[in-house]
Amino acid sequence: MNMNATLIGQALAFIVFIGFCMKYVWPPIMQALEERTKKIADGLAAAERGRHEQELAEKRAQQVIHEAKEQASEIVSQAQRRGNEIVDESKDNAHVEGERILTSAKTEIEQEANRAKDELRGQVGSIALAGAAKILGREIDAKAHTDLLEELVSRI
Amino acid sequence: MASESSITTSSYIKHHLQNLTFGEKQVETSPGIWTPTGDWGFATTSEEAAKMGFWAINVDTMLLSIILGVLMMWFFRSVAKTISTGVPSPVQNFAEMMIEFVNDTVRGSFSGGKNDLVAPLALTIFVWVFLMNLMDLIPVDILPLAVAQGAALFGADPHHVFFKVVPSTDPNATMGMALVVFGLMLYYSFKIKGAGGFLGELAFEPFGKMALPINLVLETVTLLAKPFSLGLRLFGNMYAGEMVFILIATMYGASLFMGSLAGVLQIGWAIFHILIITLQAFIFMVLTVVYIDMAHQHH
Fold this sequence. Notes:
The complex is a heterodimer of chains A (156) and B (299).
Chain A: H1 6-136, H2 146-155
Helix pairs in contact in A: 1-2
Chain B: H1 9-16, E1 21-30, E2 33-42, H2 46-51, E3 57-58, H3 59-81, H4 90-109, H5 118-134, H6 142-153, H7 171-204, H8 212-251, H9 256-296
Antiparallel strand pairs in B: 1-2, 1-3
């Protein structure tokens, strides 16, 4: 238990080990530890971000679905409206068409009636003439009695 | 020791407490007078080792502490080389656990700002002192016997080959480390406060300028007490622990009853000692950090 040069030897060995530890052991391990800490922090942040993004996406999806539903109901109501309109329109059209057909038929009937009247008028003149001739038993100058006849005809 | 009737209890204890000292051989020319022979070799008696003076070296202390230190550095270096920032291997995990522990302790005790030296210093101290203390748990006779038998193969007398297994029971080892810590304390004191600031602290604290000599004496004693208490605390604890192990070991040869009692005692003391060796390594580390931190503080 005497003090001797071991003191110096031990001190030197100690210094060498401190130096080695300081240069070759501590920095790489601390660096790796710090890197891992950063890695974990980044991973956690990324997970948080992912969760946040998922929430946003879900919200957006719900919004899109909502909009789509609204659009669909709008389209349906529009179609219904349009259908009603078409029905109304065709009703109107049919009405107008019917009216038109009716009027054209009426005019045609009128025309036919007038034509028949005219024809009748012509025939009535000649029949009256033939009847008168027979009654009188003689030839009546048609030219002389034209105005008489015409008056007759117009009275029919 | 039962087979060696020539070995008494006291010689057994003495034998275990003597380092394997290499130095200039001495001979006792007349009772109490030792003269150097000029040859160099291992001391064969405690007296001769003591007479070798300062320029002798305790080979067992140096050899074991350096082997343990190299082992420690090899372990940490191999971890540092293959370290991955991903999932750590079990070995890496173990090393990281120790490093995190030391780093946390240093961060808690050291407030001197950024310092690249303190944390590796603390790690070196903690692990190295722990390993040196751990040698205490090896049964006291195994390594000395092995070394003595090995030396006998080379023609040495095995009864005069000493081998002290625990480097931290050698005051040279603990004081050598404390010396380095003391050097670092002085270095940082001068570096941070300047020569004037540091010497001013020694001269003008705590009683002001009027009591300069008293201050100087008080502060110098305070300063010197730090490395001495640091080195001697570790030495004292480990020496006492080793002594108890040796004393328990002397009981084995006495009788069957004493032998079995010794077995129980040895196991108990060893389990208790696990706490002490860790605690002493931790205390050495923390005090070193605190002393270096104090060297950074302005009073």
